[in-house]
Amino acid sequence: MIRERRNKEKLASYYKKFMEEGIIDPNVHPWVAESWQRCRAMNLPHENWPKINRMSKTDTAAHQKTHADIIEFVDGLYEQSKQHFNIHNLSMILVDSDGYVIKNYAMPFFQRIIEDIQGMRVLEEDVGTSSIAIAREHNVPFLMFGPEMWVKDSHSGDACATPVTVDGKLRYIIGFFSLDQHDLPYDLLLSLLLTMKYSIEQHLTMLERWNITRIMMNQLPVSVYWVGKDGNLRYTNERGEKRLDGHEHPEEVFLNYEHIPVKKALQGTATQSREITWITQDRTYEDITSVMPIKVGSEVESALVMSMSIEDLKTTIAHATGYSSRYSLYSMVGETSEFLALQSKAGRVARSDHNILLQGEPGTGKQRLAHGIHQASPRAAAPLIAVRCHSASIKELQEEFFGRESGELPVAGKLELAIGGTLFLDEVEKLPVEMGDRLTDVLINGLPDKSGNKRNLNIRVIAACDSNLKRLADKGLFSRKLYELVLDTTMRVPPLRERVKDIEVIASHILVEMSAQHNLPPKRLSQEAVDLLISCSWPGNIKQLQAVIEQAFFHTPGSIIEAENIKLPGDKTMERSWKYDKDAFVATWKAAGGNISKLATMLDVSRVTLYRYLKKYGLGPKSE
To answer: In whole angstroms, what is the distance from residue 19 CA to residue 29 CA?
Structure first.
């Protein structure tokens, strides 16, 4: 409250009259008068400071640590204005909403009356009438002249205080005190106080929003990077930090960083929800990535990258919808007795609740079979959660299976997501023995919560293995407990060389799927093309056949795929055609629509290899 300058001698006479006679002069400010009367009723001493209500030194230090963010900000405000504090012999204190002094600044006033005010409580019931007590009670800035204060030792100076509120709630109080008796520039004093009030309130609002944003960023299944125009990383969330593995610059970690459209964003071009591969020294991430330019005025100053793992996306969708199976048992085709027996057994097993071990060579369709069994089971409405048992550290596997605590909210592990449904362990033979033993114990006995109680998971396990799991368990290279858990039902998935008569059926089915997936006209195989496919031994099984068919689908201009359109595995002509012929590579690149994943499938090579050739032939995003 802005007040006119008052005559100190008259104010002192009003104070004396009340203290000696208990009479309130009509010229005393009504808020001050009310406070004086309450202080008299509490029998507060007024000649000297009353007994101090304060925190211990340990509690004061902890108190300051709790309010470290606001202390840092107020320190900066004070630093910009300390010249005025020195000139006018001003002191300042920062008080919390409960009335405890958090920190004091430039102490000449308080050094005369009390040695250390930090940790002291300065409510009305502690120190009597003060500008802080009035500002706190009435929630307005208040200027108070010395003789209006309750404690006589304080009459030598003036004071003003203001509440700091956010969303109508009192958060802090800022108090100014002066020893100058004459010519104090009250207008300057109040202007400085109100400027600080506004600045702190805006800062607190920003901090609150940033804390919510940070929690949200750390809980979203997305890696977030904020990259400056100079390429330096300004911010990353927890998932992004984990991928960076201690490095400060993304280009130090991602081998194909020049092909990720960050530089395009820094030049003003946004990339929305594009499938992008992030390649590190140890791992490859398949993500849906958006990169957006951030402008200050009309100039692009930075780029925001948000990238979500496709695998995490599938898991999130599965958890949200309770359904994640992509294939039915009837999406697998064949006419041989070996296949029909497998399909029939899968249908019977699906209706039971037994755990299942799928054994077979790589590429035989174990993953699709697991999806089909889940979809045909009574658990079809619950999630199917897939875990690829890659060679990760024990800590990473523990987080993947059992989750972790992150900030204020827990991050669920794959076991919790799979409750009531199916857990598919792909390449289970790669799981360390220690992790296999612990996983088995939790699956059988339950998942412990924070209180130590164990929660029944009700999860069916389907494990897929490319090796002889029994032999690995016998040699101590695989968890015996986990092997016995999944041994309820064992299904052998035959290799493609044992299903030669199914090759034409499978190839034709792949063509139908390709046509539907890419919204392109259907294509079919000529008899010569079928004969060529049958002549191959297919060491990579159905997965390898699919890659060859997809490559032929995109390279055949007409509706009939002839034998010359098919490049079999190990075909040196195919190798020469794209490794040494830029035109052949460019044609394939265009046929894949610039999609790295599709191109890798068509050429049956790794993405790391593709990025070398993209750079060699000058394709993809240009680096500066």
So the answer is: 16
